[in-house]
Amino acid sequence: MKHKSHRSFGFALLLPVIVMSMMTSACAPRAEVPPTQAAADAGDVQAQLLTAKAYFEGKGAPADKAKAFVYFKKAADQGNAKAENDLAVMYKKGWGVAADPKQALDWWHKAAGHGLPEAQETLGAIYLNGNGVPKDTAEACRWYEKAASQGVLDAQNVLAQIYFFGDMGVSTDYAKAAQWYGAAAAQGDLSAMNGLGVLYENGYGLPKDVDKAVSYFRTAAEQGNAKAESNLGRCYMGGIGVNKDPVTAFVWLTLSQQQTEVTAGKLLHGLVPTMSKEELVKARELTRQKTEEQRKAKNQAKASASSTAAAASH
Predict the structure, then answer these.
(1) Cα–Cα distance between 201 and 295 in angstroms, integer?
(2) What's the structural domain count of the chain?
(3) Cβ neighbours of residue 137 under 8 Å, at least 6 residues apart?
(4) pLDDT, tens digit, for every residue of 57-107?
(5) Which residues contact 275 (CB under 8 A, 6 or more apart)?
(6) 96 lies in a domain?
(7) What CATH number corresponds to the domain at position 77?
(8) Domain assignment present for 174
C-alpha cells in the first residue's frame, strides 16, 4: 500500500501563515509622518517643503492642511520664496489656517520681493483689479513687468494690453505694447500675434508694414484665433496688404463670426450683398472645408496635449 506524500500537508500548514502575512501587510496603517519630516524638523528647507506638500496632498502621510501650513511656514520663515507664495495662498483660501487677506498680501510681497514670478504676477493682478487694495495700475505694471521679464506669458499679454489701451494712471504707450506683444508672440501666443498685426498695420509703436501685419494675422488665424480671423478677413475685403478677394474674406469672417466675434459679423453683413451667387456658393464650400480642417487640427492638438500630460504624470 502506497503512502501519501507529506509535501502537500506541509504546504497546507504554511498557507494560513502566508495568507495572514498578506492580510497584515494589506491592512497596515499608512505612514503617519512623511519620511522627510525628521529632516524638516531639523531645519532643512527642502525637507520642509516636501513635508508640507506631503501633508497638503495626502501623499506619504494623511492629508492635513493644518500640518502642511506649519511646514510651509517653517520654510517661509527661512526666506524660501516658493514657501512664501504657498503660505500666501493658504492664508487667502483659509487652508489649514483662518483666512487672512492681509497676511496673504504680506507673504505675496515677500515672495515677489525674492524674485518669484508667480507671486509677482499675482501682485500685478491684485493691484490691477483692486482686490483688497486700492486699484493702482502703475503698481500693477511694476509687478507685471518683473514677471514678464522672467518670461511669464500672461504677464506679457496683460502689460501689452494696458499699454495699448491705457488705463487709470498709465498712459497709452505703443512702443511698450509692441515690446510685450512681441515677447508673448515669440512664445507662440496667438492673441499677441494679432496685437502685433494691429500695431504694424497702423504704424503704432512700430514702422507701418501691412505685409507684416497680414503675416501675423494669418499665422494666428490659421490656428483659430477669432480676432485674427476677423482682421485677416477685413484685409481681404479691403485689399489691405493682399489683393482684394471677397471669397477669401467671406471664409475668414465667417470662421470668426462662428466664434461670436461681433466685428466679423458686422463686416460680413456688409460683404455678402456685394457678392455674386457663384462667389457665395464657392465661399460657403471653402468655409465648410476650412471649418473641418480647423476642427481636426484642434482635436489633434488636444490629443497631443493629453498624451504629453499622461507621460509627465508617470
Answers:
(1) 29
(2) 1
(3) 127, 128, 162, 167, 168, 169, 170
(4) 999 899 999 999 999 999 999 999 999 999 999 999 999 999 999 999 999
(5) 246, 247, 250, 283
(6) yes
(7) 1.25.40.10
(8) no
